[in-house]
Design a protein that fits this description.
4 helices, 0% strand
């Protein structure tokens, strides 16, 4: 069980770290020239497809294994909040994928406010997960 827990935490760190990096990079994306934006959009797509999505999938799989092994007799209020924030992070990943596909079709809009907002939301959800695990537990 400890190996599964380590793998779960490792995959979550990679997933959220890459998600935060992608959203921050897309916030700076709008300041680049159109030719550079198109090249960067390809890099974002690769980062998403090769790092973010596999680590998100593995963290969900390892989390499901840990849920199956969880002692259901103890209070699970912390787990409810953790899952609530984790679902929010999955939604943020889906929104990030949509933003990346939009960048591949057309150059970015004049301002990168929506990318910065997504970055902030991801950060707050990560803080929520950590608080639910280490404070509420």
């Amino acid at each position: 069980m400890n190996v599964i827990k380590v793998l779960h935490v490792m995959c979550v760190f990679i997933w959220i770290g890459n998600l935060l990096a992608l959203t921050r990079l897309m916030g700076y994306h709008v300041k680049e020239e159109e030719k550079t934006q198109m090249r960067l959009a390809k890099i974002y797509r690769r980062m998403n497809n090769l790092v973010t999505l596999p680590s998100m999938g593995l963290s969900i799989i390892f989390g499901a294994i840990l849920l199956w092994q969880l002692d259901h007799q103890k209070g699970l209020n912390w787990f409810f909040f953790k899952m609530l924030f984790a679902v929010g992070l999955v939604i943020c990943s889906i929104v990030c994928m949509q933003f990346i596909s939009d960048l591949n079709v057309k150059p970015a809009a004049r301002r990168g406010v929506r990318y910065k907002i997504l970055h902030g939301v991801c950060g707050l959800l990560l803080i929520g997960v950590l608080v639910s695990i280490y404070v509420l537990r």
